[in-house]
Amino acid sequence: MRLKSIPAIGLVALAALSLTACDAAASRDSAPTATIAAVSSIPVPANIATACRTDLKVGLVTINLQALFFNQINTGAQTIADAAGVDLQLVSANDDPLAQVTAVEQFITQEMDAIIILPIDTEGIKPAIDAAAEANIPVVVVDGIVDSSAIASAVGTANAESSQQLAEYLATSTKTRGEIGIVGALNSTIQLARQKGFIDQAISDGFAEGTIVDGKNVQETAQSAAENLLTANPTMGFAFATGEPALIGLAAAVETQNAGDRVSVVGWDLSQAAVAGLEEGWLKAIVQQNTYEFGYEGMNAAINAACGEPTDAFVPIATQIVTPENYSDFLYYLER
């Protein structure tokens, strides 16, 4: 891949850039899994792809602009685009998979040089990806598992394995065992993988699978589902949230029902609500993804693919386990 290194002084400035949004299948065996090490500041891009033209255009189709997770990916992508002199155009689907299909079709019509997509429906998006490939527009998938030979590169984490490590952490942090309720997102392929990885490991460590509720990857829906979960299971001692909206919704439910003294929670992705839970003690640990790195590597792959340079089929992104003991080292993830 054609990459250029960034001088150390420029790294800090690049990491501070923000994005102005215009709303308009590979193996994961080699992906790094969770560690407890922290870096204490926004990770900076080690490399920036070299654009082969000054008029290169890349379209990014994200899921929504509500979650910090997606905004930080956007910021990472914009950081690389600005440094490389690439025009990045962003469209939010507002949690609508059909809107993602429409956005890809629009980017094809606009003759983008590459497209980055964070897929909601990993099956339903395939025809749009195929159409882009037929138009000779490479597609990079970020934070999703799409089984298609038309994809130029995929950027993601070891979701099942990281959830397994989270379950192991829970098992070693408490001698108590019991049912684990789950606030999931049954429309998300990657969150289903997290759910399965966690439960399989938890069962092997002596826990039992409890009730599963569907937050649909929307905070308000997740809160309502979590409230129903806690109300219907007053003796449930543990809960697992598969993503940021699910964990924020579960955190709100724990607070409104004063359930912090009876339920121990683990989940994915840091937020203000998660920090409060870590400080209060009922949130025991979360898996944190390097969100900015998703954006950095997704944009690097898109630029290289657009320029006909080789791309890796899968670019693994590391995760960390965040706990009440080390969460202060990760507070930069609360910045948009």
Keywords:
single chain, 336 residues, alpha/beta, Rossmann fold, 2 domains, six-stranded parallel beta sheet, elongated, disordered N terminus
The termini sit apart by 29 Å
The helix tally amounts to 10
CATH topology of the largest domain: Rossmann fold
Strand order of the largest sheet: 4-3-5-6-7-13
Radius of gyration: 20 Å
Shape: elongated
Summarize, please.
Helix content is 39%, strand content 20%.
How would you portray this structure in words?
There is one protein chain. The protein is of the alpha/beta class. The chain has two domains: 182 residues, Response regulator (Rossmann fold); 130 residues, 3-Layer(aba) Sandwich (Rossmann fold), CATH 3.40.50. Helices cover 39% and strands 20% of the residues. The protein contains ten helices and 14 strands. The strands form three sheets. The chain has a six-stranded parallel sheet with strand order 4-3-5-6-7-13, with helices on both faces. Strands 9-8-10-11-12-14 form a six-stranded mixed sheet, with helices on both faces. A two-stranded antiparallel ribbon has the order 1-2. It is elongated. The N terminus is likely disordered.
